[in-house]
Design a protein that fits this description.
58% strand, 10 strands, single chain, two-stranded antiparallel sheet, mainly beta
């Protein structure tokens, strides 16, 4: 059965088998994504190891045990013990005919 991705506001958590070898550790963190507009943040209940791929800028995290992700304007959501690529939700603006990042 394929792994299912999760969405929490404008953040997508995409399960992956392993973090790319080229990704560098950025330490253990609770903040997954900070909001550009409100300054609010998507936070894990406990610090988790996070990694960034230096060329693409892609973000990854290892969740060692099941915990919640929370945000000031979203309900907490459980996150399973897995390895994830952390991505942003995009939407298509049909009037401007362009993709844009959803901003929280």
């Amino acid at each position: 059965m394929p792994k299912k991705w999760q969405q929490h506001g404008d953040v997508q958590l995409i399960p992956i088998d392993k973090i790319p070898d080229s990704a560098l550790s950025i330490g253990n963190r609770t903040i997954v994504q900070e909001g550009e507009i409100t300054g609010h943040a998507h936070r894990m209940s406990f610090p988790v190891p996070m990694f960034r791929e230096p060329v693409s800028g892609e973000l990854f995290m290892e969740v060692p045990k099941a915990m919640d992700i929370s945000h000031e304007t979203h309900n907490p959501q459980p996150v399973s013990s897995e390895t994830f690529q952390v991505d942003r939700v995009v939407e298509y603006d049909y009037d401007r005919e362009e993709l844009r990042m959803v901003a929280d």
